[in-house]
Each structure stands twice: as C-alpha cells, then as structure tokens.
Design brief:
By secondary structure, the protein is mainly alpha-helical. 69% of the residues lie in helices and 4% in strands. It is built from eight helices and two strands, in the order αββααααααα. It has helices spanning 8-25, 45-58, 60-86, 96-103, 107-134, 140-164, 170-190, 192-206, and strands spanning 29-32, 35-38. The chain has a two-stranded antiparallel ribbon with strand order 1-2. Helix 2 (45-58) packs antiparallel against helix 3 (60-86), helix 2 runs parallel beside helix 5 (107-134) and helix 2 (45-58) packs across helix 7. The longest helix is centred in the middle third of the chain and has 28 residues, at 107-134.
Amino acid sequence: MDRPFKHLNTITALFVTVLLISNVTSTKIVALGPLTFDGGTILFPLSYIFGDILTEVYGYARSRHVIWLGFVSALLMSVTFIIVGALPPAPDWPYQEAYSQILGLTPRIVAASLIAYFAGGFSNSFVLARLKLQTQGRWLWTRTIGSTLIGQIVDTGLFILIAFTGVVPNALLWTLIVSNYLFKCGVEILFTPFTYWITGWLKQQECEDYYDRDTDFNPFHLTSSSR
C-alpha cells in the first residue's frame, strides 16, 4: 500500500485545476506579438510543470493516476457543457447564443482535447521517468525540458490537427501549431528554476525521490502503485 504524502493531494488538485481552466479559456484565439495561439496556452504549460514534478518526485505510476483523474474531470466538464448548452434556455435568459459561442463545445473539440491531453501527458511522464534512469537522477533540466519538448509536440500537434483541420486555413493551422509549441516550451524553460526549487523542497518534505526501475509503463494500468 502507498504510504501517505503531505503534498500529493495539493499537487493533484492544482494539476486538475490548471487543466480545466485551460480547456475553458482555449475557446479564445489570442495574438501576443508575433505569436497566435488559443487562450488556454497561457496557463496550460503549468500542467506540464506539475506533471514533471509528479513524475520526478512521486514516480510514473502516481503520475499516471493523476493524468487519468484529469482526463475524467475534463471529460465530465465537457459533457456537462454540451448537455447544458442543449437544454432550452429560460424565456427571460438572453445569453444562449453567448453560452454556445464560448462553452458550446463540439464533439470534435472535446475529442481533440482529450486525445491530445492523454497522448501528450503520458509521453511527457514516460520520457521524464526514463531519462531519470538514464541520467541516474542528475541534470534535472535535461529531463524536464526534454520531456516537455516531446510531450508538447504530441499534445499541440494532435489538438490543432484534430480540432481545426478543414476549419481554418492551412497557413493558420501551422501558425497555431508552431506558436503554441514555442510558447509552451518557452514557459517550461523559463520556469526551470522554479521546477528545481519545488522538486527539491518536495523531496525533502516527502522523503521521496522515486526511480521507476521496475515500473509498468502501461498507461491503462490504473493502479497508483507501480509494484
């Protein structure tokens, strides 16, 4: 049985919160200087930082449990938005069109978001766990940045291609992919000192620095323990 941890629940709650807020704010496309990306991109990179922290400190199996929790939460949120949007509005409530435009998620967007999150999250966690073994726990920056470079290209590429192919011009499609990817990876690199600090602090607090030497990396093995 897993021993209790002081801060695992807090990190889990922050991870899921960032994921859900990012999904809602992704409905707006924003322009920041030369970059064009969905609004969720501003906060979403933090989910990868939390994912790195979870895998680095607590191991892939516990991170897998949290990724699945985020997946189910995002699915429940999306389905709820769709159902509420389909229900008839009250006669004196004039905001149905505004609701549909902002929160009226289509099945295609929901599918794109969930598939991209699932593939990107597990790619990120797997790469970090394997790199930790390869580096014998040294050079944390190589695995936080390296895992993000892989996870984010999987996540960003899948989401944009599934959600917007045939909907927006191809030129904008590739602009969105490149802009999202550069911004997300840039945030990861910028926050590297914070990642170092929080992982070091958590390892001391939790007396845990997990190495996935005997871990089952099957993403569908839904127990939180790797043993």
